[in-house]
Amino acid sequence: HEDTGLQLQALLEGQNYGAAAGDGAQCAAVSVPRNSPAMRDCLVVAVLCFGNLINFMDWFIVPGILLDIQKYFGLSDGKTGLLQTVFTLCYMLAAPIFGYLGDRYNRKIILAAGILFWSGVTLSSSFITESYYRIFVLSRGLVGIGTASYSTIAPTIIADLFEEGKRTTVLSIFYIFIPVGSGCGYMLAAGMAKSTGDWHWAFRVTPCMGGLALVLLLLLVPHRIQRRTARHRALSISGTRRGAEETPGVQRTAKTTWCQDVVSLAKNCSFVWSSLGLTAMAFVTGALGMWVPLFLYRAQLVQGIVPPCLQESCNSSNSLIFGGITIGTGIFGVIAGAEAARRLRKIYDKADPLICATSMFISALCLYTALMVAQTNILSTFIFIAFGELFLSVNWAVVTDILMYVVTPRRQSTAIALQILLSHLLGDAGSPYLIGAISNTLQARGTPSFQSSFRSMQSSFAICAFVGAFGGAFFLLTSLYIEGDRREAER
């Protein structure tokens, strides 16, 4: 049975994994025993992807019903943006803690505890009344802490299960559920608010899905996951236990302090510049995810397409459309990015950062164009926003794969945690609040009107296009160092 499993694994690794759908088909089509390594790995990835879907659904419930929440609590643009900022701040501050724990303790237990925690807090927040806005803000921060445990540790499990050739494809499948979950969050929130007439019900669906994810995690994910490399398989075939090879890595991790890991990562130029590029991506996606439905609503008010929101439940059609755009562009963008990286990497070692740089520049141009045409043509605005999101999504799996091959395995959880901390601290932790605060300041300078509220949001949103261009420059700098840092990590 062991020989059969090794042969099957070698067969799968020798095949061409070009697209996400193809990888899933391989898992489903190969006839193997239920307890074979290949089938088990596919089940583990499926569970992790389902958890990632729910995480990002819960993340974007608030933007999906932003008009209703703003009206219910009587909030300005600045205080409204604070909801997402608090969530992201708690998320990023908790990430290094979970990165440290994930490199040293059982990752399955940490994942299970995180899912249980954020599910309970989300369900509880659905019963908060309009008099307790601060408690509602606090609940979003606590949800961010629970989410951080998952986003930090789950990619490292995938990195342990698959080698570089397949790892990009499997990571692309995992990261597809970032835009898919985000879009589903918009659609779930808008749909529940419309069907029930009460936006609170939007916070009562994802906790039930979180409970299902918790059960699947406990039943299907192994208690310990060992790294799969050609070296380990060679040791297994020659009769050497895999566990013997794992033990020195555990000992080295135990002797390496967190500060030493941070210093080592700070000297890794590819890690630093790609993390700054990811920070620019996070800034743009955070601002888009929070404010696009409200911006489109104000543009439609200026054009006279929709009436002002005076009823109990506001029109949520923009959230539904934007959610659908996010899902479609996210799936296509992540798959296209992974496929482009897989093909171009064979002929050019610097392909990954150059793909990221090009997509960031194009995305920035599309988003700026969308802002400029919003007052005159809503359809064109939707089209350019879709292209902007598409080219942003190209980078998700590619950036993570860059980290995986320029950072040594025993520091990967810490590296992901630090990348999360940096990208959110300087990225989407501040961008929702910053856009709202600038909008408030610009509105205060003029006479209150639909036109002034639209213009203020349009002007503050323009920052995103320039930040996106800076992100492209950071990825260009990454390309200068990536070959040397990769060789050092392999050594």
UniProtKB/TrEMBL annotation:
GO terms for cellular component: membrane. The chain crosses the membrane at residues 42-62, 82-102, 109-129, 135-158, 170-189, 201-221, 271-292, 320-341, 353-373, 379-404, 416-439, 459-482. Residues 44-483 form the Major facilitator superfamily (MFS) profile domain. It comes from the Eukaryota. InterPro entries: MFS, MFS_dom, MFS_spinster-like, MFS_trans_sf. One of its GO terms (molecular function) is transmembrane transporter activity. Keywords: Membrane, Transmembrane, Transmembrane helix, Transport. It is a multi-pass membrane protein. It is found in: Membrane. PANTHER family: PROTEIN SPINSTER HOMOLOG 3 (PTHR23505:SF3), SPINSTER (PTHR23505). Belongs to the major facilitator superfamily. Spinster (TC 2.A.1.49) family. This is SPNS3 protein. The lineage of its organism: Eukaryota, Metazoa, Chordata, Craniata, Vertebrata. The gene is Spns3.
